[in-house]
Predict the 3D structure of the following.
Amino acid sequence: MRIHLTSVFVDDQEKAARFYTDVLGFVTKHDVPVGEDRWLTVVSPEDPDGTQLLLEPSGHPAVQPYKTALVEDGIPATSFAVDDVAAEFDRLRELGVNFTQEPLEMGPVTTAVFDDTCGNLIQIEHSK
């Protein structure tokens, strides 16, 4: 068994698509209209057949309280692996990304947390 698809709830799929591709560097895997929304997934350009991230609309009534609680408590919705947290922090900050946690070493793990502009906190991490 392996993870094929995971998701983050986004406030605006078009804005999320731009942020996750233009800023973070993911590539669109699927973009299919589904009623008023889209089946919109992105993948790492380094692994185009790997795990897909669904940029899922936040329309369900339970989603907004859930997202708000996570953000208020500083809890990331998901985590992405990077080769060098400090370098990725610098690259993203240059692109205007707002970080809520600068790079922090915790033993063998370094993390940083940013706002994805779509209602989520996202963690980047590297393990030694």
